[in-house]
Amino acid sequence: MSFSTILIDWYLKNKRELPWRNTTNPYHIWLSEIILQQTRVNQGLPYFESFTSNFPSINDLANATEDEVLKLWQGLGYYSRARNLHATAKFISANLNGIFPKQYDEIIKLKGIGPYTAAAIASFAYKEQVAVVDGNVFRVISRYFGIFDDISTSKTRNVFQDLANELICKINPDLFNQAIMDFGATQCTPKNPDCLNCVFQENCFAFRNQKTTELPVKLGKTKVSNRYFNFIIYKDKSDFTIIEQRVEKGIWQNLFQFPLIETSESVDLKNIKSLINESFQNIIKLNQTEIIHKLSHQKLHINFWELEVDEISNENKISIEDLNTFAFPIVLSNFIKSHYEI
């Protein structure tokens, strides 16, 4: 039997039941693929259900405010995905009468949609014969065929795309794509793959040559920078505080935060008092130990400082009990919920 036949047969016996697999609605498929970028299925599922419940159609998503979208997205990270999702929904609603494009070449032109997502939508919704290539596919194909090229290069990605397009089932391209992703996610896993119960065991290069742990090859390494965030929580006698919106490009764009002082290293109480540079009654550190929050390219060292004042006159003041109505980065949201019990 061919590679695709064996793979699809395995999938039909072992597939995971997921709501976006029971539809050809391109909006739901697109939504699920954007959510599942950098997100595990069990984590992404409640977000998918929340989005489809709050925004049943592309037009509903387009008509939402960005704050509403970011609030629902809170906790998934990579917030540019949510902003691009919203922008594309507005484009489709305004320029395409709310109708999602039907060909890969048109889908990939949409903001926030790359080759993998475009292929997934085109094949799952419209059965177009274009293969998906993501981390799971790199892993399965590199191990099966013994490909040692560096997958972090565009040249190698093109090699894998061409090979996957040759392997794809011409009759059921959607099943093939679902199958190879599921196979990589549950069978041919990054660590401890189930090689002894694998349908490809006999012809798998990596298994036959004991090279499973060496494939796929990814030489490019992401440089991680350290940043030191000090959030100042102003609090007056009426339990009002101040928040601000991050408008600059970069992490957490358009999300809310407490006033921030970023330093070149961790600082103590004496340092933070001098940096605030204003009169105050009392300031305390709210977290006993520095909070470490890891992003793809950054490691954040976070401290929260509460500063007591008589009265907050700032026009952006809000009640502490209303903090949970705003879209904060998850590390701030978790702190607010645990510290203020709201």
From TrEMBL:
UniProt gene name: mutY
Family: Belongs to the Nth/MutY family.
Catalysis: reaction(s): Hydrolyzes free adenine bases from 7,8-dihydro-8-oxoguanine:adenine mismatched double-stranded DNA, leaving an apurinic site
Record bears the keyword DNA damage: yes
Known EC number: 3.2.2.31
Co-factor binding comment: Binds 1 [4Fe-4S] cluster.
Reported cofactor(s): [4Fe-4S] cluster
Keyword tags: 4Fe-4S, DNA damage, DNA repair, Glycosidase, Hydrolase, Iron, Iron-sulfur, Metal-binding
Function: Adenine glycosylase active on G-A mispairs. MutY also corrects error-prone DNA synthesis past GO lesions which are due to the oxidatively damaged form of guanine: 7,8-dihydro-8-oxoguanine (8-oxo-dGTP).
Taxonomic superkingdom: Bacteria
One Gene Ontology term of the molecular function aspect: adenine/guanine mispair binding
One GO process term, biological-process aspect: base-excision repair
Signal peptide: none
Residue ranges constituting the HhH-GPD domain according to the UniProt record: 35-186
Protein name as annotated: Adenine DNA glycosylase
